[in-house]
Amino acid sequence: MSKDTSINIGLCGFGTVGQGVWKHLEQNRAELAARLGAPLRIAAIAVRDPQRKRAVKLPPKLLREDPLEIATAPDIPIVCELMGGTDLAHRVTLAALRAGKIVVSANKALICEHGAEIFATARKHGGHFFFEASVAGGIPIIKALREGLVANRFPQIYGILNGTCNYILTQMEERDAPYAEILSEAKAMGYAEADESLDVGGWDAAHKAAVLAWLAHGLWVPPSRMIVEGIERVTPADFKNAATLGYSIKLLAIITRDFASNEVSVKVHPALLPDHDVIASVNGVYNAISVTGDVVGTTLYIGKGAGQDATASAVISDIADAVALLRSGKCVHLNSEVAPLPAEQASAGKSGEGSVAASAVTLAPLERIHGRYYLRLTVRDEPGVLAHIASIMAQHAVSIASVLQTPSEDPEMASLVLTTHDANERAMRDTLHELSRLKVVNGAPLLLRICEFNT
Amino acid sequence: MSKDTSINIGLCGFGTVGQGVWKHLEQNRAELAARLGAPLRIAAIAVRDPQRKRAVKLPPKLLREDPLEIATAPDIPIVCELMGGTDLAHRVTLAALRAGKIVVSANKALICEHGAEIFATARKHGGHFFFEASVAGGIPIIKALREGLVANRFPQIYGILNGTCNYILTQMEERDAPYAEILSEAKAMGYAEADESLDVGGWDAAHKAAVLAWLAHGLWVPPSRMIVEGIERVTPADFKNAATLGYSIKLLAIITRDFASNEVSVKVHPALLPDHDVIASVNGVYNAISVTGDVVGTTLYIGKGAGQDATASAVISDIADAVALLRSGKCVHLNSEVAPLPAEQASAGKSGEGSVAASAVTLAPLERIHGRYYLRLTVRDEPGVLAHIASIMAQHAVSIASVLQTPSEDPEMASLVLTTHDANERAMRDTLHELSRLKVVNGAPLLLRICEFNT
Ligand SMILES: NC(=O)c1ccc[n+]([C@@H]2O[C@H](COP(=O)([O-])OP(=O)(O)OC[C@H]3O[C@@H](n4cnc5c(N)ncnc54)[C@H](OP(=O)(O)O)[C@@H]3O)[C@@H](O)[C@H]2O)c1
Ligand SMILES: NC(=O)c1ccc[n+]([C@@H]2O[C@H](COP(=O)([O-])OP(=O)(O)OC[C@H]3O[C@@H](n4cnc5c(N)ncnc54)[C@H](OP(=O)(O)O)[C@@H]3O)[C@@H](O)[C@H]2O)c1
Q: Which CATH architecture fits B370-450?
């Protein structure tokens, strides 16, 4: 590459994130060129609807009708996939990687669904896939895990990975307001999507957890094999009960690995987090990730988890790494000079692969996933009910730690909040199944998990 | 480099950090080889006293008498300088860089004193200088600033950079105990050095602040041109007063840049931090750094700031980056293919240089460094004293925000705690100078700074 040639970048997608990348590449043009040793040029942009009004005007001469055109254009070595979705984005990503390009992506849903294929394609064709923006917005957590903490194995990673849920839970807690009210407000203010289900159901956090679990343990865990529970059924009363017990409620993603059994578990669910845990005080649209490494101990990362600017910051850091890679002349067929690693294995650096030999790692069965639980039931307010419930729990070896009974709106009913000692997921599931079939129990019980991390 | 050759590493120094690096490279040997695509081998070790008893036994055949031998050995491309000091360490570092090697360093004192020369030497001879372990132990803050947040300019960086001071302050606060008592305890437990002055005087944090300021702003600021104040004069009473006002006390390093005037300021001093600031609750030997970027907003990093294992984690991450660089065949004369940057400028990536064109940046004069202040004076308990003090402050345009008067041990004296509205350093210095000369003021007044960051 000659020293005065700028480096061409293609943007597939020019929505929230794409326009943010454009804006900041423009604003910091000279400084970035100095830092990277080469000027950057956005050479082509693809959108669905060229007529759409945008905050940043789309320069007509850059417009390409088809993002696949950008993916395959020989003069565009860096392709940013900022469309979202798992169909066209999938085809664009694979096409660019097959052309030996560097793909920069913010698309956690795509990575979660097709990660194994994407990285295999990159490896095969000498392409590279960078994805800092896919998890935790502007927090450089991907780089921290794969480079900064490369000396470590990771027994525990947990945190807040979805800003929408954290915003809703924070508002519910602060204003003692019901979920539905806060949700519709959040939609009106643009903090939640029109279709909120991906966020509030925990699926977006699950996609991100899949990316982190793969980085840390070399294993692709589809959400269907995680425990994934959303925030829809959390009520203001749960916040009050939690506060009484000394906890806050957060939607957490939790990735643990037991290095003795070599079992990994990935969970996303609302959790009672003790007030002394720093993450319990991370509010609003912020994300936070606690990473425990066997060498470094626990490190904690906090920052905005989404939004145009924070996400653009992450995309641009990947572009910078892509430029460094291009300038080192190592883009195409990076791995041709070294022995290829087995597909499940990983190599560090930014070669677009994971970071840990994962051959022997398996998913932990429900029996070996355990913790303490918070259980809220609406029950008939009559003698013997608590005894009955307690005996069912005892049959499943679930031992009760505390009981809180409060009146319900219906005078014939009472709200019963139980916390348990350590129990396993299988036992809790069986218990829950049996409890929910009791005539004295009204509606489905709510199960939350109590998370006291050793950090 | 052939694919099955291991990569030789030399350790100059085999003390706390050196032995940690050895231990973890040993323990994770296979996994690291898989991650890095090449096995690592510690090929040589230099110490001062080969007979010394160590937790990790020094393999005799690896011993070299002189660290300079390792620095110049042609078969050792990666040299870890883990001796400390700024004399021999300086010579070893320069010799290795002149040989085009990659030097990995944990030595913030050296970088602070000789950084400009070190990076110029690296540039000139195609060597590289990596220094993740020099600031904030295992927290990958160097990588975050120079790579993960490369899209950003940094109006504000602040945090706790010295674990010893944070341990002492935390203990003083929690146990209502005087400085001297906690210090001697900390020495006995190995949390403070026999000669504590570098830590408690703020100098170690100043060295680290210099490294961060250079990374963020491309400017070498020697501690003599910073505001540096230590924790020695903070008393249990100050913690009580601070608590009354809603603050905790932390030794902070604060690096600010005003992009309008292009002025940078670097300060290290005990600060009153409001309880709602997450960093106010970072206790014990932990470090924490808040980084505000113009694109990403504020991100926060917390982790162990020192210690054998956390520091080794950082050294090993630099070794991993060094290996990636070597494997890309780009070690020697990396910059020969691109136009050289002016010495004050910087290029990103791991090319051993800073990250920002800094040509126009200057240090802010005291008049433009400002904030709120906490002032504690021991004064004669007699009429007119407060009026006198207030009038002196008013003459310097320092406006009082609150006054707290408490009895002193000496019945003729009173302790006077004043907080100010926004004032500048020059005005405060002049005020302090004048106040300390008053007959009614006993001993030197204590000045602390109140830090309410907009994050
Ligand atoms: N927004 C965030 O804060 C955030 C944070 C982290 C990650 N992400 C991820 O970043 C990606 C983009 O998110 P976003 O919020 O920027 O989405 P967005 O605002 O909806 O923008 C999507 C862009 O892709 C274009 N596009 C969609 N389908 C297309 C097609 N068939 N052909 C050509 N162009 C097409 C759209 O074109 P039109 O403009 O013509 O409709 C639009 O410009 C997603 O993967 C998302 O998960 C977003
Ligand atoms: N300790 C930490 O937690 C920490 C954290 C961050 C950064 N650092 C930095 O890391 C560096 C090393 O710190 P450390 O705590 O590991 O120091 P240390 O325990 O005192 O070890 C220093 C090592 O260097 C060797 N050495 C000293 N002078 C020498 C000479 N003239 N020739 C050959 N070898 C010599 C010593 O040899 P002998 O063993 O024979 O005395 C010893 O092995 C320092 O720059 C420090 O600031 C330390």
A: 2-Layer Sandwich (3.30)
Per the CB < 8 A criterion, the answer to whether B389 and B379 are in contact is yes
Q: Where in chain A are the domains?
A: 7-137+309-328, 141-305+340-364, 370-450
pTM: 0.94
pLDDT of residue A454: 79
Residue A153, CB-side half-sphere exposure with 13 Å CA sphere: 21
Arithmetic mean of pLDDT, B108-118: 98
Q: Which of A149, A297, A309 sits opposite B304 (nearest CB)?
A: A297
∠ CA B55-B56-B59, nearest 5°, is 140
- B137-182: pLDDT as tens digits: 999 999 999 999 999 999 999 999 999 999 999 999 999 999 999 9
Query: Looking at domain B7-137+309-328, does it have CATH number 2.40.110.20?
Result: no
**Distance, CA of B85 to CA of A233 (rounded, Å):** 59
Quick check: A361 contacting B, CB < 8 Å?
no
Give per-residue pLDDT as tens, B424-449.
999 999 999 999 999 999 999 999 99
- Which residues are within 8 A (CB) of B143 and not within 5 positions of it... i.e. 6 or more apart? A140, A143, A144, A147, A148, B132, B317
Q: DSSP letter for B226, please.
A: S
The rounded distance, in Å, linking the Cα atoms of B286 and B269 is 17
- Domain with residues B141-305+340-364, CATH architecture: 2-Layer Sandwich (3.30)
Q: Which of A313, A321, A353, A455 to mutate to test the interface with B (most CBs of B within 10 A)?
A: A313
- The maximal CA–CA distance of chain B, rounded, in angstroms, is 85
Question: Between A329 and B382, whose confidence is greater?
Answer: B382
Q: How far is the CA of A293 from the centre of ligand 2 (A)?
A: 24
Average pLDDT over residues B348-372: 70
Give B330 Cα–ligand 2 centroid separation in angstroms: 30
Token pair for B92: 């070893």
Interface ipTM: 0.92
